[in-house]
Amino acid sequence: MIKWLTENGVNFKLGYRVTDLNFKDSGDTMFVDRIQYVKDEIHQQIQLKEDDLVLVTIGSMTADSSLGSMHSAPKLITDKKDGSWKLWENIAKVSPEFGRPFVFDSRVGESKWESFTVTFQGDTFFSLMEQFSGNAAGTGGLVTFKDSNWLMSVVLAYQPNFIDQPENITVFWAMDCFRITRGTSSIKNG
């Protein structure tokens, strides 16, 4: 993807942290006028033209994520170390159209999720899942086991999933979205 985008004129800059977007209102349209960022602890900005395209990742389900292992659980991060939450909070101050980040970033316990990958020798699991779901690997979306306690979902990507993945190895990705029950109502997060 990066190779294709670069070949088509996208200029990637790594090591930059976007801290805010400045908006300009031209009547019935609002657009990003400047990008505020930090590079090597120096605050800088990029002035944009009206026809520039800006794609922004704001606080997301992978912001402030952490990794676990076979022997330790991932750490729960609640202090918004990832700059995308702060960026979303700054953008949300501009207009209610940009959402309410505090619904998510101040209630981590109610919006967290876990994901994991599983590696197999052979394709037995893939064959069984394809029979169960009716989707060949790489053609369908998530398969959610709605009756599981964790709303477990599995994604069978087209194989090989990784560069240089051995021919007899299959890998799938899965996640769970915790189900929180209060009284008689059930809140499903994910």
From TrEMBL:
Its EC number is 4.2.1.53. The keyword Cell inner membrane does not apply. Keywords: Lyase. Pfam families: MCRA. InterPro entries: FAD/NAD-bd_sf (IPR036188), Oleate_hydratase (IPR010354). It is an enzyme of class 4 (lyase). It comes from the Bacteria. One of its GO terms (molecular function) is oleate hydratase activity. This is Oleate hydratase.
